[in-house]
Automatic annotation (TrEMBL):
Signal peptide: none
Keywords: Hydrolase, Protease
Ranges in a coiled coil: none
Domain Adaptor protein ClpS core residues, every copy: 18-83
Organism of derivation: Psychroserpens ponticola
Pfam families in alphabetical order: ClpS (PF02617)
Keyword Magnesium set for record: no
Molecular-function GO terms, alphabetical: peptidase activity
Protein's UniProt name: ATP-dependent Clp protease adaptor ClpS
Biological process, per Gene Ontology: proteolysis
Length: 91
């Protein structure tokens, strides 16, 4: 009988954590549900179901986080929402 030793090796991994930002869309009295849904599909790559749910949340709660990620990735998406006439900001 032979004995085998197993050595455990501790590996330390350094990761760079980027803080996540959010695009928040706010309710307004100007845009229709269809316009908000179409814009979320286009600008945020939402499915039709996601976009519809977000538009309902915006309507009843006053705001909804529609996309989360690094600021660099969210900035062009938020610009598209603003250009389409939606009230949105990155927080």
């Amino acid at each position: 009988m032979s004995t085998k030793e197993k050595a455990k090796e501790d590996v330390q991994v350094d990761t760079l954590e980027q803080p996540l930002n959010e695009i928040v869309v706010y309710n307004d009295d100007v845009n229709t549900f269809d316009h908000v849904i179409d814009t979320l599909i286009y600008a945020c790559d939402h499915t039709p179901e996601q976009a519809e749910q977000c538009s309902i949340i915006v309507h009843y709660k006053g705001q909804c986080t529609v996309k989360t990620g690094a600021y660099k990735e969210l900035e062009p998406r938020c610009s598209m929402l603003l250009e389409a006439g939606l009230s949105a900001e990155i927080i």
